[in-house]
Amino acid sequence: MRKLIAAALCLAATVTATGCGASVESSKEAKSHAVTLTNCGKKVTYDKVPQRVVTNDVGITELMFALGLENRMAGFAMPDDKGDLTDVPWKDAYDKVKWLSKDRLTKENVLDARADLVFAGWSYGFREDSGFTPEALKKLGIPTYILTESCRNGRTKTSRGIMPPLDALYADLTNLGKLFGVEKRAAALIADFKRQVATTVAKAPAHRPKVFLYDSGQDQPLSSGRYGAPDEIISKAGGDNVMHDVDDSWTTVGWESVVERNPDVIVVCNYSDVSAEQKRKFLLSYAPLRNVSAVKHKRIFVLDYVDLVESPRNPSAIVRLGGYLRAAAQQR
């Protein structure tokens, strides 16, 4: 398993005096009154503050941890290919909250956990083919919250993304802050994230490198369009996502389009049984890419999965990728 990057993410000194596992702010109103939020463009009312939240996948789970809400969780589901959790900023929270499944959530483990809220997303747990959907859980009396990065936009049955990726991150932190009565912590996190991003944007190179995000796949690569977190991570870091014109978040594209757009840098998403080094070797040896600038100059940068899906690690990823892109621009 690979180490997940932990640098500059605890934020304890700037956000709260209680550390990464902050206490929930006292709020009689939050505890006793219904809360209405806008989630995926719809008004959703929660009758009470959830006490037994179940989450799906690493980025969603760490949104809860970043807000100090591990005490409100009954468990999480996460494949064990998302990195070594021993060095993460929220190690204590991971140790405290039950790991329910090393696959996706199911109705069975949600019911076994006596969940009173499921926080997941389309393709981050919610799927029609498995019958695990917000509608199905509603019939069981279990409310849901959908990760904003994954909200479906109506362009096709499954295309996702309704707002720029960082706006999605900030929207979810704001909504969760309101739902759980931790508005101040949410606002402090957002302010710190915006500061990190703005500092990196100010250093962006005059010549912006073209960047391709490579997740996986050999016949057809899985990449990210304008609504996936990588698009704005690349943009704020000082590059241009060559798949920005794709109106989706995570989706397959064609190698022909990659060759045509000739990226200067390729960012590899590190996860799964296929290591980042194996992906790098494939890209460097794949004949159709031999004349692509990033391949010719071996400009391949690795970020972990959790850096590249909506998560509290996105700003740190922007900072790190920004440094690499500035160095790449100077080499031109």
UniProtKB/TrEMBL annotation:
CDD domains: TroA_a. It comes from the Bacteria. Residues 1-22 form the signal peptide. Pfam families: Peripla_BP_2. InterPro entries: ABC_Transporter_SBP, ABC_transptr_periplasmic_BD. Keywords: Signal. PANTHER family: IRON(III) DICITRATE-BINDING PROTEIN, VITAMIN B12-BINDING PROTEIN. This is ABC transporter substrate-binding protein. It comes from Streptomyces mordarskii.
